[in-house]
Amino acid sequence: MDVFASVGREARALWGGGRGTSLVTIAVGWGMLNGTRMTFPVLLPYLRDAFDLGLAVAGLLVSVLWLGSAVGQLPGGIVADRYSERLVMSASTFAVAAALAVVAVAPTPVVLFAATGLVGLGQSLYPIARITSLSHIYPDRIGSALGVTMATGDLGQTVLPPVVGVLAGVLAWQAGLVALIPLFVATGVAIWVVLPVQDRSARSNGLPLAESARGVAVQLRRPNMAFMVFILFLYIFVWQSFTGLYPTYLVQEKGLSSAVVGVLFSLFFALGVVVKPLSGAAYDRVGMRWSLVLVLVGPTVGFALLPSVDGFWPLAAVTGLVSTMLGSGAVTQSFLSDAFPRELRGTGLGTVRTTAATLGATGPVLFGTVADAGYFDEGYLVLAALMAGTALLAFLSPRS
């Protein structure tokens, strides 16, 4: 009963003072962006047929999307600090809407790749602005507010891919993307109207960029930080390799229909709604080492079993094992947020996330190349080894 009462009090505090509408608006935008990004892997089989793409080239398309999603995070955070978060987030949703329209009418693979990169670039403007905006709205409850948006992100990744997959199967691959365009436009308008206008004179522009860069470089030279950034890169590399081509693998190697694949892919993210808060709580109680090791055991076993498993329910069980890797983000981001001084937190997190995600974006194209060479199953065994190595690095990471 005390637990339910505590949850109720927290919910009332988040909604009170007229702040709840802003939280919901930001969270909806985040859920749509995350969900839309994960529709591309579901659409890959259709895009391969429509544009005659091999697995390596299809993997490159996902890498372009992830690269775009990475490179704009640091600039987006800098612009949000110095101008307006609602401007950056509105621009993000409008840019994604425009890019999706180009993807839907792309006549050639070149246009498809360029438009997909713009989808990622538009998405990359949102994450840091989301965090800094919520920190202004909820100076005393930023953790809870971020938890709500993270859960909504997983909800978007759970709902949108199967919906777009069904529309692709019933109508055309463009149908789901076109349906998202007016929703993004409406979300951008809502962000601009609902979010409070901040007083420019009251905004802090923080340290000069050169001084911030030097401070971040000093922090990253600490042994534990260097270890954690490398661990984050390995995790992102594996996660993007898996999510980028898993639907294609299930269709091509396991013989499942696109509709069933959409359900399994959504299950992966649906379990993240549970895994992420549990992982964050584990970090608070047992620290980075054991919490990270625990969430990486599942994917290590799941990737190793995947080549030998067939049928919906066994594949659902393996997907559930792999989904525990989603808790890694709650652990690594909590650690990095705690490790950076307050005055360097935004620039530091933006630098780390942009660097790790940019390097990790090479995963899908490399994995696709391996699959194109006829080693799809063996690729998952390599991912299992990388997950095991990441867990070992986490356990051996220095304390300071």
Automatic annotation (TrEMBL):
<feature type="transmembrane region" description="Helical">
    <location>
        <begin position="172"/>
        <end position="195"/>
    </location>
</feature>
<dbReference type="InterPro" id="IPR050171">
    <property type="entry name" value="MFS_Transporters"/>
</dbReference>
<dbReference type="GO" id="GO:0005886">
    <property type="term" value="C:plasma membrane"/>
</dbReference>
<feature type="transmembrane region" description="Helical">
    <location>
        <begin position="379"/>
        <end position="396"/>
    </location>
</feature>
<feature type="transmembrane region" description="Helical">
    <location>
        <begin position="255"/>
        <end position="275"/>
    </location>
</feature>
<feature type="transmembrane region" description="Helical">
    <location>
        <begin position="287"/>
        <end position="306"/>
    </location>
</feature>
<dbReference type="InterPro" id="IPR036259">
    <property type="entry name" value="MFS_trans_sf"/>
</dbReference>
<feature type="transmembrane region" description="Helical">
    <location>
        <begin position="348"/>
        <end position="367"/>
    </location>
</feature>
<feature type="transmembrane region" description="Helical">
    <location>
        <begin position="87"/>
        <end position="105"/>
    </location>
</feature>
<protein>
    <submittedName>
        <fullName>Nitrate/nitrite transporter</fullName>
    </submittedName>
</protein>
<feature type="transmembrane region" description="Helical">
    <location>
        <begin position="312"/>
        <end position="336"/>
    </location>
</feature>
<dbReference type="InterPro" id="IPR020846">
    <property type="entry name" value="MFS_dom"/>
</dbReference>
<keyword id="KW-0472">Membrane</keyword>
<feature type="domain" description="Major facilitator superfamily (MFS) profile">
    <location>
        <begin position="22"/>
        <end position="400"/>
    </location>
</feature>
<dbReference type="InterPro" id="IPR011701">
    <property type="entry name" value="MFS"/>
</dbReference>
<keyword id="KW-0813">Transport</keyword>
<feature type="transmembrane region" description="Helical">
    <location>
        <begin position="12"/>
        <end position="33"/>
    </location>
</feature>
<keyword id="KW-1133">Transmembrane helix</keyword>
<dbReference type="Pfam" id="PF07690">
    <property type="entry name" value="MFS_1"/>
</dbReference>
<keyword id="KW-0812">Transmembrane</keyword>
<feature type="transmembrane region" description="Helical">
    <location>
        <begin position="53"/>
        <end position="75"/>
    </location>
</feature>
<feature type="transmembrane region" description="Helical">
    <location>
        <begin position="227"/>
        <end position="249"/>
    </location>
</feature>
<keyword id="KW-1003">Cell membrane</keyword>
